[in-house]
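Course assignment 3, question 2. Fill in each field.
Student: A.L.
Task: Predict the tertiary structure for the chain below.
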Amino acid sequence: MRRFLNSEGRSGNYFAHISSGLYIARNRALVLQLLETAMRDPNTPVGSALLGTVTKLRLLRERNGVKTQPPVDVSTLNPFGDPRAIEIQDYYVTELAAGLSKRTGKSQSTTAMTVLTHLPKDPQVAAVLLREARRILLLEFENLHPFDQEYLLSSYWDQLRDPALVPVLRRMLRSHGDADRNIHNTALKRVLEIAPEEAREFVLAEIRDPKSLVDFEVLRSLSDSTLPEADLPLLQQIRRLASSKVNFDRIYLKQKASLAARFATESIYQDLMEIYRSTQLPLEVRAGFLAYFARYHEPEALPLIEEALADIEPGQDSNLLPDLTRLYYSDGVDGLLRKRLERDEPQKASLAAYLISLHGSAADAKVIEARLERWRKEWGDRRVEAESNLQGTVERELITALTRAKSWKLSPERVKELQQSCITQICRQSFHVQ
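Answer field:
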């Protein structure tokens, strides 16, 4: 019992072995009694492991170690989903919540986090228990371990969302230790949500940091159309990374090129064009450059896009077009995809249909419908051949594009009609058509 309650800092295997020892102990009643006593001690931090162990042992004690019939879908030592196990856990959580005021320091914050992450499903009961746990966690948030901070910001933001966290989030974003850097992604996302007016300096900081890989989708959500202060840092980083022979630098180069497409001004256009033309850039990196060029000089960029697509191996366009269209989409890019939609090569037509459905306008629905009709005329009587040469994937992607598009919505009846009209087996299987 002492080893179990004082296993912090030891390996996970150590804790797992000690935990197993509790379940095979001959005097299980004593084990349960000692665990409950420890859990009720205001000086003992109650984490999920202690709560879970007490819950499982209480269930085993009630049932004399024998599973009831019909058996639960999980093992006896992991009785999640068992109604009685849920009742036992809710009882303990309620008791822990009621005693939070008697705890201090780590015991209080750890136990409050356990209450938050194990709230009963009844919303009224949960609201009562959450109130004090939330207050404590907001006050102590800065003192939590970075991993706990990230977990709460990611998984329990709806319960903790509060402007009072902004000063803490600011300090977290200004810290650059290894553990702290891992939380920048989530912390910046939350600042953008609750204090967008303060997010600009932190987005700039991540752009200027040559080792930052904060999620591009988080960074791009900043409302500013451009960040002139980012021009020079991005240009310097891209120039250095483009000449690097280190494989991992391709990851950084792709990130920085994407950021240039989103935030850089036209002032570095010629410099980036020189790098693009003089360097053998990986295909996945070129998307950022081409999106940047298209943003400011689309007539020059569109031929470069077609040139890049013409020079690649079959099937490699998926390394360019998805990123390109995510970074920049226009009528010109839409026209390029429409031309590829008419191609006979299955992969090219399928990818074009998918990307048009993601980024195109409602007017594209008729274009995809017309392509589906043409496919049916060409392959309707050649089902076996269509399945052997991957033309079935074109049928599937065209129907998927029509039924799951972002800019238009078909009626449920029309969706069902299209799905049931599948000719090839791959299409029928995708939509579970008998």
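Instructor remarks: Residues 1-141 form one domain. The chain has three domains: 1-141, 225-325, 329-434.
Grade: pending
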